[in-house]
Amino acid sequence: MTDLAEAPIAVADHDGAPATPLQLIGPDGALRDGSPVAGVTPEIVRGFYRDMVLAREFDQEAYHLQRQGELGLWLSCRGQEAAQVGSIRAVEASDHVFPSYREQAAALCRGIGPAELLTQFRGTAHGGWNPDDYRFHIYSLVLSTQLLHATGYALGVAADRRKNPALDEIVLCYFGDGAASQGDANEALNWSAVTNAPVVFFCQNNQWAISTPSAAQSRTPLHVRAAGFGLTTTLVDGNDVLAVHAATAAAAGRVRAGGPPELIEAITYRMAGHSTSDDPTRYRPADEVSRWEERDPLLRVQRLLDAQGWADPQFHTALEDEAKTLAEATRAACRALDTPALEDSFRNTLVGETAALRAERERYTAWRESFA
Predict the structure, then answer these.
(1) CA-CA distance, 356 to 350, in Å (whole number)?
(2) End-to-end CA distance of the chain
(3) Which of 141, 174, 348, 363 is the most buried (most CB within 10 A)?
């Protein structure tokens, strides 16, 4: 029996050969060793499944809202729910998280609501929530910038821990395979290793950087490249929520204990386009999508629940009702987001409104009111 937090981890081979991804649940829903993993209870699996189902419902509703003209843009996380739920549930609520721009499943697990998640994409604010309230940074739309932010924040955490050794906070940073090709990512990986920053980088390798496949981005797998910088690395089946949770819990534990920064490469798949402005059928073959649909992370856990008898019809009915309620709340929350007053831009451009900005604001207000 393997403990959930101590499952065998696939680390990078330093000769450049890729490791075999850690997998605990097969696509057919069968546990790999034929018996339950120690520490995995029916309640835990049902909880993971609930998180994933609600994330997909919210994500799909946001997609529809964009198509109806209610949102300017949307970046779907469909197909990546296991990678996000398994990882975010493996760290402490006090650990600070730096997302990219499609971490809806992770954000919902942190308690961030539909209105807050939709604000940025409806264009009513640059960010929908206060990061301190959820220990979850606002979305970073500039590719790879959050890796440097996470590294810098982690260095601050390390400084605090030197003053107070009882502190055990770490940082979790999400990014995609496309971001790994940016200079910022390489700088962050190198600098975090040099400084021993308490950070876990979590790459959701969803196979496509917009229309560029992973194979065309780099000849060397990311987890091998990161090992070259000096990080401890793990390769995991990103559609297996139990494997992701085990890998992240193990990595977080080692970093929390003072070990070097770590990188987890989760092999998953982006079911939708890069964004709602993208048409994936122009570059992605249909048979590839079909193959990955059979590896759907939700379907995998559903099969596990059914095979083990861990979920009855009442559970599924209640979850369907909860998902419908979330969809309704998402629609209502989106349409209730008011367009901000332009006067707020004058007030918020600087920390304090200057006399010149106040005069400009007052002139604008007088001009606007002249049409009333």
Answers:
(1) 12
(2) 73
(3) 174
The pLDDT assigned to 349 comes to 85
The residue written with tokens 């924040």 in the block is: 153
Helix (H) / strand (E) element for 106: namely helix 104-109
pLDDT in the model for residue 339: 85
Q: 140-165: string of b/e by CB count within 10 Å (b at 16+)?
A: beebbbbbbbbbbbbbebbeebeeee
C-alpha torsion sign, points 280, 284, 287, 289: negative
Q: Which of 178, 171, 175 is nearest to 150 (CA)?
A: 171
- Residue 3's nearest CA partner among 39, 35, 32 is 39
pLDDT digits (tens, 9 = 90+) for 95-113: 999 999 999 999 999 999 9
Pairing of strands 208-209, 212-213: antiparallel
Q: Which residues of the chain have pLDDT under 50?
A: 1-18
Most distant CA pair in the chain, distance: 75
Give the closest residue to 125 by CA, choosing from 338, 299, 317. 338
Nearest to 13 by CA among 220, 206, 217: 220
pLDDT (0 to 100) of residue 341: 87
- Give the pLDDT of residue 36: 63
Question: Containing H/E element for 213?
Answer: strand 212-213
